[in-house]
Amino acid sequence: MRIAITSDLHFDPRGNFTSPATIQALVRHIREEDPDAVLIAGDLAHGLRNFKECLSCFQGFEVPVGVIAGNHDLWRDPASGSGSLDLWRRHLPQVAKEMGFIWLEAESIFLSDTAIVGSLVWYDYSAIDRGFELSRNQIAELKARLVNDSVWIDWTFGDPEFAESLLRGLQERIHVAAVRPEVSKIFVATHVPILEGQMPRKADPVWGLSNAYFGNLTAGDAVLTEPKIRVIASGHTHVGRTGIVDRSNAPPVQYFVVPSEYGTPECLFIEL
Ligand SMILES: [Fe+2]
Ligand SMILES: [Fe+2]
After folding, report:
1. pTM to 2 decimal places
2. From the CA of 71, which ligand is nearest?
3. 9 CA to centre of ligand 1 in angstroms
4. What is the SS3 string spanning the chain?
5. How far is the CA of 192 from the centre of ligand 2 (A)?
6. How much is the pLDDT for 15?
7. Ligand (nearest to CA of 69)
């Protein structure tokens, strides 16, 4: 089983981020590699129209193509008059499904003995660097100075609250996959990283504080309890990472972060 996972495409026809031609070239490369499934792990584009155009580059695969939203996909979209909640609940899943993709927040992919389960996952501040003595409210207030989600995400959920509801859904889908007797391996794809080894740590206090908005380690702890999990792959940080988590009572888990940058999207081909 060979699974292609790309993330953080940031499709932008104006060329400020990633040009359509660059994304088309990436998709040609994925087709040549002939994987058993393709995953697009969030941050396709800002704006519904760009999201749709980015997805259209991925049409025509004969294998399942799963899609996860990223935080940028949920930024309010003045052009279509859609707010973050509308995009999240209605427009993005609808567009993806109508175009023939699998919306992983609702549905998993089953390929013989392997299940692919996915979620956006939201940050709950648990990935902040050690040593910060800040309350959740203080971290919520500092977000306005550190990340653009504070300007562009216009729903009223608190981050930890939204993170908890997404984690419940992810755990439920993992459970549904794990109880299937034919499933022996589960691949978990998320936009936001969930393991310590996936986090980019630096000796820089601003970066260390910003990590509050770049991971969710609570989700990692919960996901690792399922023995059938073999791979966890994520996006969002734009900083490539790979490693292995050993577990005492279950097989090890391989983890990855897709090393896409603005303008230079990447795809990993992961065997399991
Ligand atoms: Fe991104
Ligand atoms: Fe992101």
Report:
1. 0.98
2. 2
3. 7
4. CEEEEECCCCECCCCCCECHHHHHHHHHHHHHHCCCEEEEECCCCCCHHHHHHHHHCCCCCCCCEEEECCCHHHCCECCCCECHHHHHHHHHHHHHHHCCCEECCCCCEEECCEEEEEECCCCCCCCCCCCCCCCHHHHHHHHHHHCCHHHHCCCCCCHHHHHHHHHHHHHHHHHHHHCCCCCCEEEEEECCCCCHHHCCCCCCHHHHHHHHHCCCHHHHHHHCCCCCEEEEEECCCCCCEEEEECCCCCCCEEEEECCCECCECCEEEEEC
5. 7
6. 83
7. 2
